[in-house]
Amino acid sequence: MAHRARWICLCLLLAALSTAAADWRAELPAAKRLGVGEFTWFGLRLYTAQLWTAGPVHDWNQPFALELLYHRSLSKGTLVQATLEEMRRLNGGSITSQQRTAWTHAIEQAFVDVRPGMRITGLYLPGQGCRFYVDGKLSREIADPVFARAFFAIWLDPRARDTQLRQRLLGLAGNDRGT
């Protein structure tokens, strides 16, 4: 009987470890890369972005993942500031001071200082919010659908700052699709 109890505990432990170690792909197992593009700033290549969807097109009503592979070192503070500025630019005065405070806190907990080769992936969950993974490990879950939409709009909204990157991510700029 003790042997059986140990076996059950070992199985539960392994299941818990595999769940904790699972990256975003476990949440979106049918995902295929819809598009890919580079983001540069004043000629410096900052990151490569990839959009992963389960369907043939991007749909705000379906989960998707946006993966950023960094080519330069950037501080967490720089990432947080740039993110909030773009969210504010796209949403104008519709972000309340309470949302800004909550969103700043959430992003500060989700993001890290990055260096070349690191990946941050955002998983969009319609109606629920989003999850952030740093190098495949869950960093933070944000249960705020308004935040999630505002965050991913930085890359996917028609008013995105880098319209060419948006087109590439959506698979609309030539042959950007891949698996």
Write the layout of secondary structure elements.
Blueprint (H helix, E strand, L loop, with lengths): L1 H20 L10 E10 L2 E10 L10 E7 L5 H16 L5 H14 L8 E7 L3 E6 L2 E6 L2 H12 L6 H7 L10
Antiparallel strand pairs: 1-2, 2-3, 3-4, 4-5, 5-6
Helix pairs in contact: 2-3, 2-4
Portion of residues within helices: 25-40%
Low-pLDDT windows of residues = 2-21
Kindly state the number of beta strands.
Answer: 6
Mean pLDDT equals 86
What spatial form do the alpha-carbon principal axes imply? globular
Span of the ends, CA to CA: 48 Å
Q: Radius of gyration, Cα only, in angstroms?
A: 18 Å
Strand content: 25-35%
Give the class from helix and strand content and strand pairing: alpha+beta
Q: Largest sheet, described in full?
A: 6 strands, antiparallel
- The succession of helices and strands, N to C, reads HEEEHHEEEHH
Strand order in the largest sheet: 1-2-3-4-5-6
Query: Count of helical segments?
Result: 5
Written account of the structure:
The protein has 179 residues and is α+β, with helices and mostly antiparallel strands. Helix content is 39%, strand content 26%. It contains 5 helices and 6 strands; from the N terminus they run αβββααβββαα. It has helices at 2-21, 76-91, 97-110, 145-156, 163-169; strands at residues 32-41, 44-53, 64-70, 119-125, 129-134, 137-142. It has a 6-stranded antiparallel β-sheet with strand order 1-2-3-4-5-6. Strand 1 and strand 2 form a beta hairpin. The longest helix is centred in the N-terminal third of the chain and has 20 residues, at 2-21. It is globular and about 40 Å long. It starts with a helix and ends in a 10-residue tail after the last helix. The relative contact order is 0.17. The model is unreliable at 2-21 (pLDDT under 50).
